[in-house]
Amino acid sequence: MASHYQAALLVASPSYPNSIAWSNENLVAIASGHIITILNPALHAGPRGLITLHPDKPFPIGVVDKEDLLSPCLMPTSLSRDVRPCARSISWSQPGFASNSGCLLAVCTTGGHVKLYRAPFCEFTAEWIEVVDISELLFKHLESTEFGEHNASEFHQKQGSTGCTTGRGCAEELEESLSSKGSGRRKRKTLGKRDGANEEFVELSYCSKKAKLRDKGGRLAASNTATPNKVIEVESGTFVVNDQSLPSRVKGRSSLNGENNSFPLITAKQYASRSALLSSLVVAWSPVVTLCGSKCAILAVGAKSGNISFWKICTPQFYTVEHDGVPADAILIGLLQAHSAWITAISWGVATSSCLKSQLAVATGSCDGSVKIWLGDVQRLVQSTEATNRSFSLLTEVTNATSAPVSTISLIVQAQSQDKIILAIGRGSGSLETWIYCLSSNKIQCAGISEAHDQVVTGLAWAFDGHCLYSCSQDNSVRSWTLHGSRQRQVPFPSNFPGIKNSTNLSQVSDQCFGLALAPGELMVAVVRSLETNLLNQMYQARTQRAVVEFFWTGGQLLEPLEKNVSCGSKPSELSKRELQCWECNILWSLKNFENGDKLPVLWDTIAALLVLKKLAPTFVRDLLSKWISSWFPEKQESGYMEKTLLHVQNMLSVISSRRIHLLNIISRRLMPRKEKAEVPKWEQHNFSDKTYVEGETELWHNFLVNSERELTERLVASTFTTVLSRAALSPDSFSVDTSWFPIGVAQMEQWVAINSKVVHNQLKVLGSKFKELGTRIDSVCEYSKSEVCSFCTGPVQFKSPDVASCEGRKVEGGEVESHKLSRCAVSMKLCSITEPMWFCCCCNRWINKLAPQAIFTMPSSPLDVNCGCGSFDLDEVCLPLCPFCGILLQRSMPEFLLSVCPV
Q1: Torsion angle, CA of 174/177/179/185, rounded to 10 degrees?
Q2: pLDDT tens digits along 330-345
Q3: Taking the model in full, what pTM does it have?
Q4: Domain regions of the chain by residue span
Q5: Over the stretch 805-832, which tens digit does the pLDDT of each residue have?
Q6: What is d(CA 729, CA 171) in angstroms, rounded to the nearest whole number?
Q7: Could you give the CA distance from residue 787 to residue 523 in angstroms, rounded to a whole number?
Q8: CATH classification (class only), 6-57+83-146+279-553
Q9: CB of 219 within 8 A of CB of 186?
Q10: In CA terms, which of 371, 373, 535, 709 is 20 to 30 Å from 640?
């Protein structure tokens, strides 16, 4: 196995396939036992986020007769001894669905409960915050529909004939608490009596084994989940706990949340059916779907019943880091009976063809071995507000029921072949299958079936637009495969890369592999393994080191079978010509992939690889970047000279898209950093122009950075000016002040144009000169205030820079003038507030108080360009928390001891 780049130890071991997930905002989540660990791959030994799972309260689905307790359908419930919940499945949403524009994490536990969590950006804790309980919403829906049972009226009649009565309250209210470590012994505590009657309430403490509650007829009550501190009304008879008896009789009443509940009497099959509907097994988020400006994602939840419930979660109406005032609403829009057995795997993709509109493709796998592909109508899904099965249609049944259950699947639609759906299937037998479905011809073919592993396949991930597949197994192996045409072949896993950090080799003590996940740039893969505790130091390691996450480089991955006469570098510090070619091809693919404006630029793995390669082969990195930039100008045939390429780009900035400029700015700051001058503050380093601190190529990149940031500022100012003039041309009744975006800082932008009048576009000065014609009307269409005062001393502040400012200060003792350094918003150029939390860019270290509209990040060229025309912003569109100079996701600046995101 290859040497890992870095490793992070975990305090608990995973137990299920796909126990690791890598978000598109560069966070890694690992489901290990009762804890989900969230870490930053850039700081794997730094702060971490946690989700601690607690036992959930059972749903009151009903009770069954004593005679039905030994029914075959109830045996799994009767024999269940799960005490502590364990994470079974996790899945990240795309960025933009949390109230701070981050990702939501869906967690499914072994108890069958599904919940959504967000980062604690305003709570300042390590524990992540629950935002939605999907299982609770599903129960309410199923309860309102009588669990889909057609003869529901008969159940009510049977319930009435048994004499089930409404429970009565207990003498005193109890506060529920659950200790994760119990002694496993039962305690009986008298809580009170009712009106002198010979009836008393008892409390049973939490046991290490699960308590089965039965009523006076021996009926099994509630659900198949243990509940702490149950309060049961006791008379005479027998109360059964783990096959032990108490001299009492239970009437079948229990207090949940301090309220009394009565359960309907149902048959054993009905109990098993309802329990299966509520017992979730797997969760999976869809890609973002957009219709008429509305963005949403679909969460698929697979259950033991073979049903899949689909939940629509829309992006928030606005984003904030000040408070969590934007609730996340989940709407049930579909229930699909996909299989007749347990749903064990779900994977999403976006499929299009010449005859079809963009549709969501979802592949589902079951424990009976069957695999199916479904198509979801995007328009129906986005517009749907109620549960229906009309939004999805069966596309094809890939495999029928077999003896080998499906453990994991991975679906991808290649960007170059939008009408082909490629599906990889991993099974419990260790076999790996690859299938290709053509939408235009409605035909499916097998690309390969192999006994890839000796044990259960626990992870699959497509990379490099479906040309490479990574698989891992419980036999502790990780393998890579390529897809050439319609044939699947195994290729060597990349094992040689310079700059490997020296860390403890854990390959000798690792036991099983429970999943893998690719970085957003797909140049690195993370693998989670459990550790064999018997091989660890029993005093110092075995107690705290139960699993490990290892990060491996995949940028040198061969995408075709290795020829016999091709050799790799003999030393870790060497790379062969063939390996360098692989790195060049894969890095270029990753960079071009981020040119898509819909994909959030997360270049952490790309920049990390380029930094190592720059030390080893600076000419290789220079030629690679030159080739990438030259591909933007097909008419310019020459490439290879970085100096000429950068000069050409500076002259063509007005016709380059904002996304490409953002990528170049990130590379300029992170890959070609300037030497900082000690006496110059950090926030002014980007304005420091002493060329003695920049030499050679770094000077070229710095000059480009200055010009590119001025170009982006011009685009922002031009669009703001045009928006103000467009509003002024309309009547006051034709627009509402209460919109998603309102122009502010117009006076400061006007001053910036005046200061840089010699270098800015002439059209920008023409737009600014029109403000004088508006007179006092300008205050009704935008915020226009030239005067600014210091927040510390109320001294006047003059506009000199769009990033920083200094007040004129006030006199103190001794006659000296005390001045304060202030920051300006990178979007509005106004002074930032010192009391309200602000957005922060971890790349350029700028602060932002007013978010920019989405249009500023998707401009194909400058709005001042003659061919483009100067357009205004759509005031009703949601403002995105993205840096206008780097394009990366903004965040709230967190203390060093708390987890934060590092996209670059």
Answers
A1: 20
A2: 999 989 999 999 999 9
A3: 0.84
A4: 6-57+83-146+279-553, 182-274, 577-703, 704-892
A5: 888 877 766 667 788 888 999 999 999 8
A6: 71
A7: 50
A8: mainly beta
A9: no
A10: 709
